[in-house]
Task: structure prediction
Amino acid sequence: MGGVGSVTHLLDTHTLLWMVGDPDRLGPAARGVVEDPQQALYVSAASTWEIATKRRLGRLPHADVLVTNYARHLRRLDLRPVPISDDHALVAGGLDWAHRDPFDRMLAAVAMVEGWILVTRDPAFGSLPGLRTLW
Result:
């Protein structure tokens, strides 16, 4: 975890991709968090799964470098991987939320179960009660 007074954040998939390949796209608050060494930053296995899936489908062709050197990028950026737990899966599957994207549902569930803030610019998350977001 981060230092004293730190807050724990979970990165949305696009936040991770932009940290690696296009950091200028990060919002001001997101940039402040990801550049602060006192903040604990996590990446869900759901994002790893989403990146690999979309790369395979040709929707993220620029993700080759990230996929090939995934663990190295996480270490370089001081990002901590978080596995998907049964609790995460149960909450994701049970969310009363019209949003159907399974990756987003899992990211929301991980943040909610762990009490973390989701770093995302996706407005779809704003309609989910109990989820804190930052951009």
